[in-house]
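Action item from last week, closing it out:
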Amino acid sequence: MLSQTLNRASRSTTARRAVESFPLTRKVVDRFVPGETTADAIAATRELVAAGRSVTIDVLGEDVLDIAGARATRDAYLDLLRALADAGVAEGSDVSLKLSALGQALPDGTTVATEHAAEICDAAGAVGCTVTLDMEDHTTVDSTLEIGADLRQPYPWIGNVLQTNLRRTPGDIAALEGTGARIRLVKGAYREPESVALQRKADVDRAYEAAVDALMASDCYPMIATHDPAMLDRAVAQARATGRGEDRWEAQMLFGVRPDLEQRMVDAGHRMRVYLPYGTDWYGYFMRRLAERPANVGFFLRALMHR
């Protein structure tokens, strides 16, 4: 119930104004979003790389409804990629794109978003970065997977995200067999109807386990995005069982959620990538982080009580 309320709040303008106006909100948000500027993202990237992590960087924003906004998002990513190269941390980094921020919802949105994503891919490839297409709510899945397939022809390193709460995901994994695609596996952060998504945590967990097994047995490159130690242990065991070396899969975690678990993975010799969001449009992302994990809500409330 709490997670549903928070997910609804993530798209409520009234709730947004209330949260953004609270003086201590920024202090709490800083745990999950290291800043609003490209310079902030570069500084956080330097620290993570020095600590043995790699990064995937998200310029926060979604649901853009005009071409000017879509172009502004594209330009922000191009600026970011130049800054990563100038700082010497581009090689091996990744950027995460939300296609809705690149014009996916506009008239002829598939063409617009694909063109903008391709421009970002050109710039990323030139500096040694990869690109991953984030997944949003279930209405965008077909379009996002199709755009990923199209872009994978000139950019074979482009990745897609699959959400195991969606009932369709086992079929999507099967369809990607043979492509060698980079696939980030998440449980899903959007409130979805029962007709398309599993509702019980136990069912989503079982679906995640099955998806880990399927990806490890495939020729895809699994990116296991979770903060659940049991799921990470399963991924490690399945990688070993399928003869998958450390260079053929990675773990991913959100910035600020489980740095202790990140360190455990690094110490064990596993590839560890941190999802690093930045920008002024942090509200929706922040509320979904609260919805995903009750401990995050507790952290928020404790900070408010100690103001």
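Closing note: Residues 253 and 274 are 5 Å apart (CA to CA).
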